[in-house]
């Protein structure tokens, strides 16, 4: 299923500080929530997400989800970009491009030049080469809307993932036309001003430094680098200090020309809007955006080669508990869609507090956290088993974990009720996200980018259709008996006592 916007290593960071004494209370609360969610979701016989779409002649897809309950609107531009498009020399630059999106653009430059002329500021006008800048006015149009932007009271941000980059504004609904214009000018007319660009490089380097100060960063990166050993940059949205520090505006223009084309983008608008109004405004604003070549035909996505053997790695960092992750190559959208649904359902079976897996790992006292997670991706989604335990229990916990995984396809491993509950929980979780529409906008963007909207339109229906045979096929195809990577994050002092080995981590 979708991994939301916290980086996995930040989620893991929270897990490393879990207190074993809190586990019983947490499980009781989770069980209560599970029962409530299941009961509510079972009332949904044929749940559908009521979004509507239209594709412009240049290929830009417009997705609108109306909800007039609150007079707010979120406008998002999603682009199929991210680390899965990045060879090593461009690694992390999709993220840097995201940072530059909200900086100056050519519309802003024209606006500043108009102000300089109105105030007779010839020094600025001449110094910024305004005579050339204003020539673009015929193409860009009147930029006086920018006088109102600071009064709109909006929230803006962006994120970069492996297969998805998004930019969004949230504001009151009457401001939607202005925000659409602001989005268009930022999208079509970036300027990458030198001073701003150099400052933003330092901002991104600071983000990387903060990430690398988190011990679990090294767990996450070790696992992903080992799993996707031939093309690790394709699974590393943050990139490296070296590539970010050496970024140039020419590389930004390269990314723009390849991926920032309308036929590789989607405009998503949710909230108190009328679809026809959005379609009309989008047509008038974005039709001038010229269709580009299909970037994934001209620059095909790499094929990650399968693992040839299992490998265990010990990563020493100053952590209190022991964090273990075991990873496999999972199914890819477009190649094995059926297994992506089965993976989601099975993960939810496992995470139910009274499941056999949780009883064996958590109720036994061997671990404080244990779960199975699949990350939906078009370009090989990883499967991870995560285990948090203490140094004195690490070997026993690993032994119990591998014994449990060996039983995943046992017909008695889960009940029909657990199978049904997992499906209703998945529906309920997705429906609950719609309560905060601004966040749900990003879910739509993620699904559009990594799966396409047809996949998401059929998501609930296909979840309900998942059978035991589908789950068995998923487990036997991707997990049981398959090469995998096991990584343990442990302090040097704890490792001296625990004496974990690579063989322990791969179940040998």
**How far apart are the first and last residues' alpha carbons, in Å?**
29 Å
What is the name of the CATH superfamily of the domain at 8-23 and 310-408 and 469-505? Metalloenzyme, LuxS/M16 peptidase-like
CATH architecture of the domain at 8-23 and 310-408 and 469-505: 2-Layer Sandwich
- Count every helix, treating DSSP H or I runs of 4 or more residues as helices: 25
Average pLDDT works out at 91
Q: Stretches where pLDDT falls below 50 for ≥5 residues? A: 3-11, 13-44
Fraction of residues in H or I helices: 40-55%
- CATH topology of the domain at 8-23 and 310-408 and 469-505, anyone? Cytochrome Bc1 Complex, Chain A, domain 1
Q: Please provide the count of β strands.
A: 11
Roughly how many Å is the radius of gyration? Answer: 25 Å
Counting copies of identical and different chains, the oligomeric state is: single chain
Shape: globular
Provide the β-strand percentage band.
Answer: 5-15%
Largest sheet geometry = 6 strands, mixed
Q: Strands across the major sheet, in which order?
A: 1-2-6-3-5-4
CATH class of the domain at 8-23 and 310-408 and 469-505: Alpha Beta
- From the helix content, strand content and strand pairing, which structural class follows? alpha+beta
